[in-house]
Hints:
Blueprint: H1 5-10, H2 19-71, H3 76-87, E1 90-94, E2 99-103, H4 115-126, E3 132-137, E4 145-154, E5 157-166, H5 171-218, H6 232-282, H7 288-319, E6 327-331, H8 332-349, E7 353-357, E8 363-367, H9 368-384, E9 391-399, E10 402-409, H10 443-453, E11 457-463, E12 467-475, H11 482-501
Parallel strand pairs: 7-9
Antiparallel strand pairs: 1-2, 1-5, 3-4, 4-5, 6-8, 9-10, 10-12, 11-12
Helix pairs in contact: 2-3, 2-5, 5-6, 6-7, 7-10, 8-9, 9-10
Amino acid sequence: MADHTGDRARQPKVDTSSIKTTTLMSFVIFALFLVAVLWGLFNSFINTYYARARTQEVIRTANALETQFIQDRDSFDTYAVQTAGTNGIYIRIDVSDSRLIYDGTRTVKDTGAFANDIARIRSKLESSPLESVTETRSSTGNNSRLVYAAYIRSGSDSDIMYIIAPLYPDEVTFRILRSMLIYISLIVVLVSFFLAYALSRRLSAPIENLTESAKELSQGNYNVKFDGAGFTETKELARALNKASYEMEKTDFYQREILANVSHDLKTPLTMIRSYAEKIIDISGDNPEKRNSDLGVIIQETERLNRMVTDMLSVSNLQSNNVEMHMETFDLVEAAEDVYESFRVLASSEDFEIQFHPCKSAWIVGDRSRIMQVMTNFVSNAVKYSGDNKFVDIRLNKGNRKVAFHCIDHGIGIPSDEISHVWDKYYRTSANHERDIEGTGLGLSIVKGLLNLHNARYGVESEEGKGSDFWFEMETVRKPNVKNDKSKAASADTEGSDGKED
Protein backbone atom coordinates (compact mmCIF):
# COMPACT_ATOMS: atom_id res chain seq x y z
CA MET A 1 0.00 0.00 0.00
CA ALA A 2 1.44 3.37 -1.05
CA ASP A 3 2.39 5.82 1.64
CA HIS A 4 1.01 9.26 0.83
CA THR A 5 2.12 10.86 4.09
CA GLY A 6 5.14 12.48 2.43
CA ASP A 7 2.99 13.80 -0.45
CA ARG A 8 0.60 15.41 2.00
CA ALA A 9 3.52 16.94 3.89
CA ARG A 10 4.93 18.45 0.72
CA GLN A 11 1.64 20.11 -0.27
CA PRO A 12 1.92 23.90 0.15
CA LYS A 13 -0.12 25.34 2.98
CA VAL A 14 -2.35 28.34 2.44
CA ASP A 15 -0.86 31.42 4.04
CA THR A 16 -3.86 32.97 5.74
CA SER A 17 -1.92 36.13 6.62
CA SER A 18 -0.82 36.94 3.04
CA ILE A 19 -2.28 39.93 1.19
CA LYS A 20 -3.63 37.68 -1.55
CA THR A 21 -5.51 35.35 0.80
CA THR A 22 -6.66 38.16 3.10
CA THR A 23 -8.02 40.24 0.21
CA LEU A 24 -9.74 37.24 -1.37
CA MET A 25 -11.38 36.13 1.87
CA SER A 26 -12.41 39.70 2.75
CA PHE A 27 -14.22 40.17 -0.55
CA VAL A 28 -15.90 36.78 -0.39
CA ILE A 29 -17.05 37.37 3.19
CA PHE A 30 -18.31 40.82 2.19
CA ALA A 31 -20.23 39.31 -0.73
CA LEU A 32 -21.79 36.68 1.55
CA PHE A 33 -22.70 39.43 4.00
CA LEU A 34 -24.45 41.37 1.23
CA VAL A 35 -26.35 38.25 0.18
CA ALA A 36 -27.39 37.64 3.78
CA VAL A 37 -28.59 41.24 4.05
CA LEU A 38 -30.56 40.87 0.81
CA TRP A 39 -32.26 37.71 2.06
CA GLY A 40 -32.97 39.30 5.42
CA LEU A 41 -34.51 42.35 3.80
CA PHE A 42 -36.48 40.15 1.43
CA ASN A 43 -37.98 38.05 4.23
CA SER A 44 -38.53 41.00 6.58
CA PHE A 45 -39.82 43.73 4.28
CA ILE A 46 -41.32 42.00 1.24
CA ASN A 47 -44.83 42.18 2.69
CA THR A 48 -44.43 45.77 3.91
CA TYR A 49 -42.98 46.97 0.62
CA TYR A 50 -45.58 45.03 -1.37
CA ALA A 51 -48.41 46.55 0.71
CA ARG A 52 -47.14 50.09 0.19
CA ALA A 53 -46.62 49.62 -3.52
CA ARG A 54 -49.99 47.87 -3.86
CA THR A 55 -51.79 50.73 -2.13
CA GLN A 56 -50.29 53.29 -4.49
CA GLU A 57 -51.16 51.11 -7.47
CA VAL A 58 -54.77 50.71 -6.30
CA ILE A 59 -55.19 54.50 -6.01
CA ARG A 60 -53.82 55.00 -9.54
CA THR A 61 -56.10 52.25 -10.85
CA ALA A 62 -59.14 53.81 -9.14
CA ASN A 63 -58.40 57.17 -10.74
CA ALA A 64 -58.09 55.53 -14.17
CA LEU A 65 -61.34 53.57 -13.66
CA GLU A 66 -63.19 56.73 -12.61
CA THR A 67 -61.98 58.59 -15.68
CA GLN A 68 -62.99 55.71 -17.96
CA PHE A 69 -66.39 55.36 -16.27
CA ILE A 70 -67.21 59.03 -16.75
CA GLN A 71 -65.85 59.49 -20.27
CA ASP A 72 -66.69 56.19 -22.00
CA ARG A 73 -69.41 54.26 -20.27
CA ASP A 74 -69.99 51.92 -23.20
CA SER A 75 -66.46 50.41 -23.13
CA PHE A 76 -66.10 50.58 -19.36
CA ASP A 77 -67.10 46.95 -18.77
CA THR A 78 -64.35 45.67 -21.02
CA TYR A 79 -61.79 47.99 -19.45
CA ALA A 80 -62.85 47.08 -15.89
CA VAL A 81 -62.69 43.33 -16.56
CA GLN A 82 -59.18 43.65 -17.97
CA THR A 83 -58.05 45.88 -15.09
CA ALA A 84 -59.47 43.54 -12.44
CA GLY A 85 -57.86 40.47 -14.03
CA THR A 86 -54.53 42.13 -14.70
CA ASN A 87 -54.18 43.59 -11.21
CA GLY A 88 -55.85 40.79 -9.30
CA ILE A 89 -58.37 43.07 -7.55
CA TYR A 90 -62.09 43.09 -6.79
CA ILE A 91 -64.01 46.04 -8.27
CA ARG A 92 -67.59 46.99 -7.43
CA ILE A 93 -69.47 50.08 -8.56
CA ASP A 94 -72.82 50.97 -7.03
CA VAL A 95 -74.90 53.19 -9.28
CA SER A 96 -78.44 54.40 -8.72
CA ASP A 97 -80.14 51.57 -10.58
CA SER A 98 -77.60 48.75 -10.57
CA ARG A 99 -74.42 47.22 -9.15
CA LEU A 100 -71.39 46.43 -11.30
CA ILE A 101 -68.96 43.77 -10.09
CA TYR A 102 -65.63 42.83 -11.64
CA ASP A 103 -63.77 40.19 -9.66
CA GLY A 104 -60.12 39.57 -10.52
CA THR A 105 -59.25 37.94 -7.20
CA ARG A 106 -60.53 34.50 -8.31
CA THR A 107 -62.60 34.30 -5.15
CA VAL A 108 -66.29 33.61 -4.85
CA LYS A 109 -68.59 36.07 -6.50
CA ASP A 110 -70.30 38.75 -4.55
CA THR A 111 -72.29 36.46 -2.28
CA GLY A 112 -71.26 38.22 0.90
CA ALA A 113 -67.49 37.46 0.85
CA PHE A 114 -66.63 41.17 0.95
CA ALA A 115 -69.99 42.39 2.23
CA ASN A 116 -68.72 43.30 5.66
CA ASP A 117 -65.66 45.10 4.22
CA ILE A 118 -67.83 47.14 1.85
CA ALA A 119 -70.34 47.99 4.59
CA ARG A 120 -67.56 49.25 6.86
CA ILE A 121 -65.77 51.30 4.21
CA ARG A 122 -69.08 52.81 2.98
CA SER A 123 -69.93 53.94 6.48
CA LYS A 124 -66.43 55.45 6.79
CA LEU A 125 -66.74 57.22 3.44
CA GLU A 126 -70.15 58.71 4.28
CA SER A 127 -68.85 60.06 7.57
CA SER A 128 -65.68 61.47 6.01
CA PRO A 129 -65.40 64.87 4.32
CA LEU A 130 -63.02 63.34 1.78
CA GLU A 131 -63.86 62.01 -1.66
CA SER A 132 -62.08 58.70 -1.00
CA VAL A 133 -61.01 56.58 1.97
CA THR A 134 -58.90 53.46 2.46
CA GLU A 135 -58.69 50.81 5.15
CA THR A 136 -56.51 47.79 5.71
CA ARG A 137 -58.20 44.62 6.83
CA SER A 138 -56.69 41.36 8.06
CA SER A 139 -58.05 37.86 8.02
CA THR A 140 -56.94 34.38 9.00
CA GLY A 141 -53.32 33.62 8.10
CA ASN A 142 -52.17 37.25 8.21
CA ASN A 143 -53.49 37.76 4.69
CA SER A 144 -54.25 41.46 4.77
CA ARG A 145 -56.17 43.34 2.11
CA LEU A 146 -56.78 46.92 1.15
CA VAL A 147 -60.34 48.20 1.01
CA TYR A 148 -60.86 51.40 -1.01
CA ALA A 149 -64.00 53.46 -1.56
CA ALA A 150 -64.50 56.70 -3.53
CA TYR A 151 -67.32 58.78 -4.95
CA ILE A 152 -67.71 58.89 -8.71
CA ARG A 153 -69.09 62.28 -9.68
CA SER A 154 -70.91 62.10 -13.01
CA GLY A 155 -73.46 64.83 -13.56
CA SER A 156 -76.00 64.98 -10.74
CA ASP A 157 -75.65 61.34 -9.72
CA SER A 158 -73.35 60.18 -6.97
CA ASP A 159 -72.02 56.71 -7.53
CA ILE A 160 -69.55 54.81 -5.31
CA MET A 161 -66.64 52.66 -6.47
CA TYR A 162 -65.16 50.00 -4.20
CA ILE A 163 -61.88 48.22 -4.76
CA ILE A 164 -60.56 45.35 -2.66
CA ALA A 165 -56.96 44.27 -3.27
CA PRO A 166 -54.84 41.67 -1.45
CA LEU A 167 -51.73 43.17 0.20
CA TYR A 168 -49.59 40.06 0.00
CA PRO A 169 -47.94 38.43 -2.99
CA ASP A 170 -49.48 35.23 -4.15
CA GLU A 171 -47.50 32.00 -3.94
CA VAL A 172 -46.52 32.06 -7.60
CA THR A 173 -45.15 35.61 -7.38
CA PHE A 174 -43.35 34.81 -4.12
CA ARG A 175 -41.69 31.73 -5.62
CA ILE A 176 -40.59 33.72 -8.66
CA LEU A 177 -39.08 36.45 -6.51
CA ARG A 178 -37.32 33.91 -4.33
CA SER A 179 -35.89 32.04 -7.32
CA MET A 180 -34.72 35.31 -8.85
CA LEU A 181 -33.03 36.26 -5.57
CA ILE A 182 -31.25 32.90 -5.48
CA TYR A 183 -29.81 33.51 -8.94
CA ILE A 184 -28.84 37.06 -7.99
CA SER A 185 -27.08 35.77 -4.86
CA LEU A 186 -25.10 33.20 -6.84
CA ILE A 187 -24.12 35.79 -9.42
CA VAL A 188 -23.03 38.26 -6.72
CA VAL A 189 -20.90 35.61 -4.97
CA LEU A 190 -19.26 34.42 -8.19
CA VAL A 191 -18.57 37.92 -9.50
CA SER A 192 -17.21 38.96 -6.10
CA PHE A 193 -14.96 35.90 -6.00
CA PHE A 194 -13.47 36.56 -9.42
CA LEU A 195 -13.08 40.27 -8.76
CA ALA A 196 -11.48 39.53 -5.39
CA TYR A 197 -9.13 37.00 -6.98
CA ALA A 198 -8.08 39.44 -9.70
CA LEU A 199 -7.64 42.31 -7.25
CA SER A 200 -5.71 40.19 -4.75
CA ARG A 201 -3.29 39.12 -7.47
CA ARG A 202 -2.89 42.71 -8.62
CA LEU A 203 -2.23 43.84 -5.04
CA SER A 204 0.22 41.08 -4.21
CA ALA A 205 2.07 40.88 -7.55
CA PRO A 206 4.23 44.04 -7.13
CA ILE A 207 4.99 43.14 -3.51
CA GLU A 208 6.00 39.61 -4.51
CA ASN A 209 8.24 41.06 -7.23
CA LEU A 210 9.83 43.41 -4.70
CA THR A 211 10.36 40.49 -2.31
CA GLU A 212 12.08 38.39 -4.98
CA SER A 213 14.31 41.33 -5.92
CA ALA A 214 15.13 41.92 -2.25
CA LYS A 215 16.20 38.27 -1.93
CA GLU A 216 18.54 38.71 -4.88
CA LEU A 217 19.91 41.89 -3.30
CA SER A 218 20.53 40.05 -0.03
CA GLN A 219 22.65 37.57 -1.99
CA GLY A 220 24.87 40.39 -3.25
CA ASN A 221 23.30 41.05 -6.65
CA TYR A 222 23.41 44.86 -6.76
CA ASN A 223 22.29 44.92 -10.41
CA VAL A 224 18.78 43.87 -9.49
CA LYS A 225 16.08 46.43 -10.25
CA PHE A 226 13.01 46.87 -8.06
CA ASP A 227 9.75 47.27 -9.97
CA GLY A 228 6.75 48.53 -8.01
CA ALA A 229 4.47 49.10 -11.01
CA GLY A 230 0.78 49.21 -10.18
CA PHE A 231 0.38 51.42 -7.15
CA THR A 232 1.87 54.69 -5.92
CA GLU A 233 2.97 53.15 -2.61
CA THR A 234 4.79 50.23 -4.25
CA LYS A 235 6.42 52.61 -6.76
CA GLU A 236 7.71 54.74 -3.88
CA LEU A 237 8.95 51.61 -2.11
CA ALA A 238 10.68 50.45 -5.31
CA ARG A 239 12.38 53.83 -5.68
CA ALA A 240 13.56 53.69 -2.08
CA LEU A 241 14.87 50.13 -2.50
CA ASN A 242 16.63 51.01 -5.77
CA LYS A 243 18.30 53.91 -4.00
CA ALA A 244 19.26 51.65 -1.09
CA SER A 245 20.66 49.11 -3.56
CA TYR A 246 22.71 51.84 -5.22
CA GLU A 247 24.01 53.08 -1.87
CA MET A 248 24.88 49.53 -0.79
CA GLU A 249 26.70 48.92 -4.05
CA LYS A 250 28.56 52.20 -3.68
CA THR A 251 29.49 51.46 -0.06
CA ASP A 252 30.59 47.98 -0.97
CA PHE A 253 32.71 49.39 -3.79
CA TYR A 254 34.27 51.98 -1.49
CA GLN A 255 34.91 49.35 1.16
CA ARG A 256 36.67 47.07 -1.33
CA GLU A 257 38.65 50.04 -2.58
CA ILE A 258 39.65 51.16 0.91
CA LEU A 259 40.60 47.61 1.85
CA ALA A 260 42.79 47.46 -1.23
CA ASN A 261 44.25 50.91 -0.50
CA VAL A 262 44.79 50.24 3.19
CA SER A 263 46.28 46.83 2.47
CA HIS A 264 48.66 48.44 0.01
CA ASP A 265 49.41 51.36 2.32
CA LEU A 266 49.94 49.05 5.29
CA LYS A 267 52.14 46.70 3.33
CA THR A 268 54.47 49.48 2.21
CA PRO A 269 55.32 50.93 5.66
CA LEU A 270 55.49 47.47 7.24
CA THR A 271 57.92 46.41 4.54
CA MET A 272 59.91 49.59 5.08
CA ILE A 273 59.98 49.09 8.85
CA ARG A 274 61.08 45.48 8.50
CA SER A 275 63.71 46.34 5.89
CA TYR A 276 65.24 49.20 7.87
CA ALA A 277 65.13 47.20 11.08
CA GLU A 278 67.07 44.40 9.37
CA LYS A 279 69.43 46.99 7.92
CA ILE A 280 70.14 48.35 11.40
CA ILE A 281 70.85 44.85 12.68
CA ASP A 282 73.01 43.81 9.75
CA ILE A 283 74.67 47.01 8.52
CA SER A 284 74.17 50.34 10.27
CA GLY A 285 73.95 49.22 13.87
CA ASP A 286 77.49 50.39 14.64
CA ASN A 287 77.26 53.57 12.59
CA PRO A 288 75.37 56.17 14.66
CA GLU A 289 74.68 58.48 11.71
CA LYS A 290 73.26 55.76 9.45
CA ARG A 291 71.48 54.10 12.36
CA ASN A 292 69.72 57.34 13.30
CA SER A 293 68.76 57.92 9.67
CA ASP A 294 67.27 54.42 9.41
CA LEU A 295 65.46 54.85 12.72
CA GLY A 296 64.01 58.13 11.40
CA VAL A 297 62.51 56.24 8.43
CA ILE A 298 61.05 53.66 10.80
CA ILE A 299 59.52 56.39 12.97
CA GLN A 300 58.09 58.15 9.87
CA GLU A 301 56.47 54.94 8.60
CA THR A 302 55.14 54.19 12.08
CA GLU A 303 53.49 57.62 12.19
CA ARG A 304 51.97 56.91 8.80
CA LEU A 305 50.47 53.68 10.15
CA ASN A 306 49.26 55.52 13.22
CA ARG A 307 47.41 58.07 11.06
CA MET A 308 45.58 55.31 9.20
CA VAL A 309 44.51 53.60 12.39
CA THR A 310 43.49 56.94 13.92
CA ASP A 311 41.25 57.73 10.93
CA MET A 312 39.53 54.37 11.21
CA LEU A 313 38.99 54.78 14.96
CA SER A 314 37.65 58.31 14.41
CA VAL A 315 35.05 57.07 11.93
CA SER A 316 34.08 54.26 14.29
CA ASN A 317 33.68 56.68 17.21
CA LEU A 318 31.63 59.11 15.13
CA GLN A 319 29.31 56.35 13.98
CA SER A 320 28.79 55.15 17.57
CA ASN A 321 28.41 58.72 18.94
CA ASN A 322 31.37 58.05 21.20
CA VAL A 323 33.36 61.24 20.53
CA GLU A 324 34.63 63.16 23.55
CA MET A 325 34.22 66.91 23.02
CA HIS A 326 35.98 69.65 25.00
CA MET A 327 33.92 72.73 24.32
CA GLU A 328 35.45 76.15 24.88
CA THR A 329 35.29 79.67 23.54
CA PHE A 330 38.21 80.42 21.22
CA ASP A 331 39.23 82.64 18.32
CA LEU A 332 38.74 80.80 15.04
CA VAL A 333 41.10 83.21 13.25
CA GLU A 334 43.89 82.41 15.66
CA ALA A 335 43.29 78.66 15.28
CA ALA A 336 43.29 79.00 11.48
CA GLU A 337 46.57 80.89 11.67
CA ASP A 338 48.10 78.01 13.66
CA VAL A 339 47.00 75.64 10.91
CA TYR A 340 48.48 77.93 8.28
CA GLU A 341 51.79 78.09 10.14
CA SER A 342 51.96 74.28 10.24
CA PHE A 343 51.80 74.18 6.43
CA ARG A 344 54.35 76.92 5.82
CA VAL A 345 57.18 74.38 6.02
CA LEU A 346 55.56 72.46 3.17
CA ALA A 347 55.15 75.66 1.21
CA SER A 348 58.83 76.44 1.41
CA SER A 349 60.08 72.88 0.85
CA GLU A 350 57.89 71.89 -2.11
CA ASP A 351 57.41 75.24 -3.83
CA PHE A 352 53.80 75.57 -2.72
CA GLU A 353 52.22 78.98 -2.37
CA ILE A 354 49.81 79.11 0.56
CA GLN A 355 48.17 82.46 1.21
CA PHE A 356 46.32 83.37 4.39
CA HIS A 357 43.63 86.07 4.41
CA PRO A 358 42.27 86.44 7.94
CA CYS A 359 39.40 88.60 9.13
CA LYS A 360 38.97 90.30 12.47
CA SER A 361 38.86 88.07 15.52
CA ALA A 362 35.89 85.72 15.43
CA TRP A 363 35.08 83.92 18.67
CA ILE A 364 33.16 80.66 18.50
CA VAL A 365 32.18 77.88 20.91
CA GLY A 366 33.55 74.47 20.04
CA ASP A 367 36.31 71.92 20.47
CA ARG A 368 39.41 73.79 19.31
CA SER A 369 41.41 70.68 18.47
CA ARG A 370 38.51 69.20 16.47
CA ILE A 371 37.94 72.40 14.48
CA MET A 372 41.68 72.60 13.78
CA GLN A 373 41.48 68.99 12.59
CA VAL A 374 38.74 70.04 10.14
CA MET A 375 40.77 72.98 8.82
CA THR A 376 43.91 70.83 8.57
CA ASN A 377 42.01 68.26 6.53
CA PHE A 378 40.72 70.93 4.13
CA VAL A 379 44.19 72.41 3.62
CA SER A 380 45.80 68.96 3.31
CA ASN A 381 43.30 67.94 0.62
CA ALA A 382 43.86 71.24 -1.18
CA VAL A 383 47.59 70.55 -1.24
CA LYS A 384 47.08 66.98 -2.45
CA TYR A 385 44.72 67.90 -5.27
CA SER A 386 46.16 71.25 -6.33
CA GLY A 387 48.00 69.64 -9.23
CA ASP A 388 50.72 71.61 -10.96
CA ASN A 389 49.21 74.90 -9.83
CA LYS A 390 50.50 74.42 -6.27
CA PHE A 391 48.47 77.32 -4.91
CA VAL A 392 46.19 77.25 -1.86
CA ASP A 393 44.20 80.19 -0.55
CA ILE A 394 42.92 80.22 3.05
CA ARG A 395 40.24 82.84 3.73
CA LEU A 396 38.08 83.77 6.69
CA ASN A 397 34.99 85.94 6.23
CA LYS A 398 33.00 87.40 9.10
CA GLY A 399 29.57 88.97 9.03
CA ASN A 400 26.01 88.78 10.37
CA ARG A 401 27.10 87.01 13.57
CA LYS A 402 28.74 84.23 11.56
CA VAL A 403 32.27 83.40 10.47
CA ALA A 404 33.17 81.26 7.45
CA PHE A 405 36.39 79.37 6.74
CA HIS A 406 37.27 78.79 3.06
CA CYS A 407 40.09 76.66 1.68
CA ILE A 408 40.47 77.24 -2.05
CA ASP A 409 42.69 75.47 -4.56
CA HIS A 410 42.98 75.74 -8.33
CA GLY A 411 43.74 72.11 -9.01
CA ILE A 412 41.97 69.18 -10.63
CA GLY A 413 38.54 69.86 -9.10
CA ILE A 414 35.71 67.38 -8.62
CA PRO A 415 33.39 66.00 -11.34
CA SER A 416 29.86 67.41 -11.00
CA ASP A 417 28.32 63.95 -10.59
CA GLU A 418 30.62 63.19 -7.63
CA ILE A 419 30.24 66.38 -5.60
CA SER A 420 27.33 64.97 -3.57
CA HIS A 421 29.47 61.96 -2.57
CA VAL A 422 32.65 63.70 -1.37
CA TRP A 423 31.46 63.47 2.25
CA ASP A 424 30.84 59.72 2.03
CA LYS A 425 33.06 57.19 3.72
CA TYR A 426 35.81 55.71 1.56
CA TYR A 427 35.27 58.28 -1.17
CA ARG A 428 38.22 59.27 -3.34
CA THR A 429 37.75 61.41 -6.42
CA SER A 430 37.99 59.70 -9.77
CA ALA A 431 39.58 62.80 -11.36
CA ASN A 432 42.96 62.16 -12.91
CA HIS A 433 46.07 63.41 -11.11
CA GLU A 434 49.76 62.83 -11.65
CA ARG A 435 51.00 62.26 -8.11
CA ASP A 436 50.21 59.17 -6.07
CA ILE A 437 47.91 60.56 -3.39
CA GLU A 438 47.93 58.74 -0.09
CA GLY A 439 44.83 58.51 2.05
CA THR A 440 42.09 56.19 3.26
CA GLY A 441 39.15 58.15 1.91
CA LEU A 442 37.87 58.72 5.45
CA GLY A 443 39.05 62.29 6.01
CA LEU A 444 36.00 64.17 4.70
CA SER A 445 33.67 61.67 6.35
CA ILE A 446 35.35 62.50 9.68
CA VAL A 447 35.09 66.22 8.88
CA LYS A 448 31.38 65.83 8.19
CA GLY A 449 30.82 64.10 11.54
CA LEU A 450 32.80 66.72 13.48
CA LEU A 451 31.03 69.66 11.83
CA ASN A 452 27.64 68.05 12.50
CA LEU A 453 28.59 67.77 16.17
CA HIS A 454 29.24 71.55 16.12
CA ASN A 455 25.95 72.27 14.27
CA ALA A 456 28.00 73.98 11.57
CA ARG A 457 27.02 74.55 7.95
CA TYR A 458 29.49 73.19 5.41
CA GLY A 459 29.84 72.47 1.73
CA VAL A 460 32.02 72.43 -1.35
CA GLU A 461 31.94 74.34 -4.61
CA SER A 462 34.00 72.80 -7.37
CA GLU A 463 34.44 72.63 -11.11
CA GLU A 464 36.49 69.93 -12.78
CA GLY A 465 39.80 71.29 -13.99
CA LYS A 466 39.41 74.62 -12.14
CA GLY A 467 39.69 73.73 -8.47
CA SER A 468 37.57 73.47 -5.34
CA ASP A 469 36.42 75.59 -2.42
CA PHE A 470 35.77 73.65 0.80
CA TRP A 471 34.13 75.73 3.52
CA PHE A 472 32.29 75.68 6.81
CA GLU A 473 30.40 78.34 8.73
CA MET A 474 29.73 78.76 12.47
CA GLU A 475 27.96 81.27 14.68
CA THR A 476 30.11 83.78 16.54
CA VAL A 477 29.84 84.71 20.22
CA ARG A 478 31.10 87.57 22.33
CA LYS A 479 34.73 87.65 23.33
CA PRO A 480 35.24 86.27 26.85
CA ASN A 481 35.80 88.82 29.63
CA VAL A 482 39.58 88.70 30.12
CA LYS A 483 39.49 90.61 33.44
CA ASN A 484 37.06 88.16 34.98
CA ASP A 485 39.15 85.26 33.69
CA LYS A 486 42.30 86.79 35.19
CA SER A 487 40.62 87.48 38.54
CA LYS A 488 39.32 83.90 38.64
CA ALA A 489 42.78 82.59 37.84
CA ALA A 490 44.34 84.83 40.51
CA SER A 491 41.78 83.68 43.04
CA ALA A 492 42.55 80.09 42.23
CA ASP A 493 46.29 80.70 42.58
CA THR A 494 45.77 82.38 45.96
CA GLU A 495 43.67 79.52 47.24
CA GLY A 496 46.28 77.08 46.01
CA SER A 497 49.13 78.94 47.71
CA ASP A 498 47.11 79.18 50.93
CA GLY A 499 46.59 75.50 50.83
CA LYS A 500 50.32 74.88 50.43
CA GLU A 501 51.17 77.18 53.34
CA ASP A 502 48.70 75.39 55.53
